[in-house]
Amino acid sequence: MLEQIEKINSLDELQALYTATFGKNGTMTARLRDMKNLDADARAALNAENATLRDAFKTRQAALENAALMAQLSAESVDVTLDPMPAARGTLHPMTRSLAEISTILHSFGYTRMTGPEIEDDWHNFTALNTPDYHPARDMQDTFFLENGNIMRTQTSAIQIRAMEAHGAPIKIFGIGPTYRREMDATHSPMFGQIEGLHVDKNVTMRDLIGDVRAFLMRFFEIDDVQLRIRPSYFPFTEPSIEIDMKWHGDKWLEIMGAGMVHPNVLRHCGIDPDVYQGYAFGFGWDRLAMLKYGLDDIRKFYDGDVRWLKNNGN
Ligand code: FA5
């Protein structure tokens, strides 16, 4: 019997033999029932046989159960050396990335960030900026007008006005955000981003402006020096007005921004006395900076929402 138990390879078979031995009608059960007819030696021998058999069943059961578990584990095993499925990772949009970089730099120069609405009124976008409705400079920007007379802001310069109206002078702020114009080609988008800087105090001059612009460009483009070209220009809200070009890759001059000393009328419109205070303002193309820094060539791609492009042009 012990040998038979050893050879059994399935739990079902083992159970069947166990029942045939120890069940109600089992062979051992019958023999134990007749034990009273045996002498003492035979009883002891039967008890020992009984115990040995039960042990043998138990041991075989444990062995079969263990083998079944092992078989299950190896069938369900995972090969940890296989390459994992590539996880889809998000990337930051170049505008988001440059926003963080630009803000960090301007904060470190002492500019505080101000915001303004993207739907602006005529006062903040034009009139307060010394651009009354008969002013020809309004033609410089093709504007999206809303039915209620408001407009989509065409320039972050509107943020200057809101900042000075709210806080007066002295003031040193920057604004960054979307602006809208009816334009569309590889370097113009109907929605694009601008960065505005404004610093008004008693002794602020054009030198401070150029110093901050230089330092900003060096930090943003991570270069040791930057060559600037300052050209006279015209904006209704600055006097004098300039445009600043930057030498790019040793040969090209790139127009980077418009800037100038805040026009006395603009200060007056915001309740600031131009005989006491003066200051500068500047306006960059946010997308343009991001395109230059990350080597991107078509501004329209920024707003297409094409995930494949973002994957290659995020960080
Ligand atoms: C202005 O908008 C002035 N508000 C800038 C300024 C601020 C001057 C403060 C003086 C003082 P301009 O229209 O040149 O200026 O636009 C500024 C920058 O915005 C441009 O140099 C360009 O980089 C960017 N820009 C203008 N139009 C578009 C467009 N359609 N798409 C992408 N970028 C544009």
SSE layout and pairings?
Layout: H1 2-7, H2 11-22, H3 27-33, H4 40-75, H5 94-108, E1 112-113, E2 119-120, H6 122-125, E3 151-152, H7 157-167, E4 171-180, E5 191-201, H8 206-221, E6 228-235, E7 238-248, E8 252-262, H9 264-269, E9 278-285, H10 286-294, H11 307-313
Parallel strand pairs: 1-4
Antiparallel strand pairs: 2-3, 4-5, 5-9, 6-7, 7-8, 8-9
Helix pairs in contact: 5-10
Adenosine-5'-[phenylalaninyl-phosphate] binds at residues 155, 157, 181, 183, 188-189, 192, 194, 196, 235, 238, 255, 257-260, 281-283, 285, 287-288, 299.
Task: Describe the 3D structure.
Helix 5 packs across helix 10. The chain is an alpha+beta fold and 315 residues long. A hairpin with a 2-residue loop joins strand 6 and strand 7. The chain starts with a helix and ends with a helix. The strands form two sheets. The chain has a seven-stranded mixed sheet with strand order 1-4-5-9-8-7-6, with helices on both faces. Strands 2-3 form a two-stranded antiparallel sheet. It contains eleven helices and nine strands. The chain is rod-shaped and about 130 Å long.
Gist?
This protein has 315 residues and is an alpha+beta fold. The chain has 11 helices and 9 strands.
List keywords for this structure.
two-stranded antiparallel sheet, alpha+beta, 9 strands, 315 residues, binds adenosine-5'-[phenylalaninyl-phosphate]
Strand order of the largest sheet: 1-4-5-9-8-7-6
Main sheet properties? 7 strands, mixed
Taking all Cα atoms into account, the compactness measure Rg is 42 Å
Category by helix and strand content: alpha+beta
Q: How much helicity do the residues have?
A: 40-55%
Number of distinct helices:
11
What ligand species are in this complex? adenosine-5'-[phenylalaninyl-phosphate]
Mean pLDDT: 92
Number of strands: 9
| End-to-end CA span | 74 Å
The run of helices and strands is HHHHHEEHEHEEHEEEHEHH
Spans where pLDDT lies below 50 across 5 or more residues? none
Instruction: Tell me the strand percentage band.
Output: 15-25%
